[in-house]
Amino acid sequence: MPPYADIAYPASLSASHPIDKPSLRRELRRRRRGLTPRQQRDASRRLCQRLKQLPEIRRARRISLYLPVGGEIDPTPLIGWLRRRNVRVYLPVLRPFAENHLWLVEYRPNTPMIKNRFGIFEPAPRYSAQRRNRLPAWGLDVMIVPLVGFDAQGNRMGMGGGFYDRTLAFTRRRRPRPWLIGVAHSCQQVPHLPPEPWDISLQAIVSDQEVVRP
Ligand SMILES: Nc1nc2c(c(=O)[nH]1)N(C=O)[C@@H](CNc1ccc(C(=O)N[C@@H](CCC(=O)O)C(=O)O)cc1)CN2
Ligand SMILES: Nc1ncnc2c1ncn2[C@@H]1O[C@H](COP(=O)(O)OP(=O)(O)OP(=O)(O)O)[C@@H](O)[C@H]1O
């Protein structure tokens, strides 16, 4: 059972109601924002310990992750470890002129950064516009995907923009595809999320408490 199973879920989460995704998303975002700095630090450390043990990550040469906002679990302690292993690190960048698509842009120690319209740091436009600094998503070995919610079956919910679903839609038709790892705090686990037709399935979900392999 998820540790928060005893907390009252929104009424919309009971089996007899269809799930009201926007209110569930709000509730789960509130929950992760409410974690203390200390809980955040511990969760991040536990998450990264688990990630470093995954064979898929140990084998990878190119990995994308994200810079956390709003209480998201923090994967960035991995960056130094990955660089020491000569792994290339990529970040999502809001793609200009393509609604709700992401670019994956290499993140080096001297990469110029700006805040995007959501207040998330990302490589600056001048840098991201250069094709040599980007990688098509199929060129990644592993993509670490931030989750707002997840269930034990591996269903996921994100921020609601469909950014990752759109960016990864190609994986239905073509190989290679990156190994997709969703990450979240364990308090973001819920009993059941309805899969949507456009959802791209994850190979694993890693939280501070466990590794779920659907
Ligand atoms: N750290 C991090 N970076 C990421 C993502 C993420 O989930 N986490 N994304 C994953 O998709 C993309 C950005 N997606 C986002 C989608 C929606 C909202 C959002 O709802 N923001 C406002 C409402 C809209 C607005 O301000 O215009 C909000 O916070 O309520 C933010 C980011 C790319 N970078
Ligand atoms: N491949 C796609 N092409 C066009 N629209 C899409 C695609 N994937 C998702 N969408 C649209 O994006 C919107 C957001 O979807 P959803 O609520 O599932 O987002 P999410 O999974 O939480 O977000 P994310 O993928 O950024 O983590 C939906 O309205 C959906 O129709």
Task: Itemize the secondary structure elements and their pairings.
Elements: H1 21-33, H2 37-53, H3 55-59, E1 62-64, H4 78-84, E2 88-94, E3 102-106, E4 113-115, E5 121-123, H5 125-128, E6 142-146, E7 149-150, E8 156-157, H6 163-167, E9 179-184, E10 204-207, E11 211-212
Parallel strand pairs: 1-2, 1-6, 6-9, 9-10
Antiparallel strand pairs: 2-3, 4-5, 7-8, 10-11
This protein binds the ligand Nc1nc2c(c(=O)[nH]1)N(C=O)[C@@H](CNc1ccc(C(=O)N[C@@H](CCC(=O)O)C(=O)O)cc1)CN2 and adenosine-5'-triphosphate.
Adenosine-5'-triphosphate binds at residues 157-166, 169, 196, 198.
GO molecular function, one term: 5-formyltetrahydrofolate cyclo-ligase activity
Catalytic activity: (6S)-5-formyl-5,6,7,8-tetrahydrofolate + ATP = (6R)-5,10-methenyltetrahydrofolate + ADP + phosphate
Binding site for substrate: 67, 72
List its traits:
single chain; 214 residues; alpha/beta; Rossmann fold; seven-stranded mixed sheet; two-stranded antiparallel sheet; disordered N terminus; ATP binding
Helix content bin? 10-25%
Determine the CATH superfamily of the domain at 37-91 and 136-212. Answer: NagB/RpiA/CoA transferase-like
How confident overall, as mean pLDDT? 93
CATH class of the domain at 37-91 and 136-212: Alpha Beta
Based on CA inertia axes, which overall geometry fits? globular
Radius of gyration: 17 Å
The H/E string reads: HHHEHEEEEHEEEHEEE
Order of strands side by side in the largest beta sheet? Answer: 3-2-1-6-9-10-11
- Unreliable spans: 1-8
Class by helix and strand content? alpha/beta
CATH architecture classification of the domain at 37-91 and 136-212 = 3-Layer(aba) Sandwich
Distance between the ends: 16 Å
User: Bound compounds, please?
Assistant: ligand FFO, adenosine-5'-triphosphate
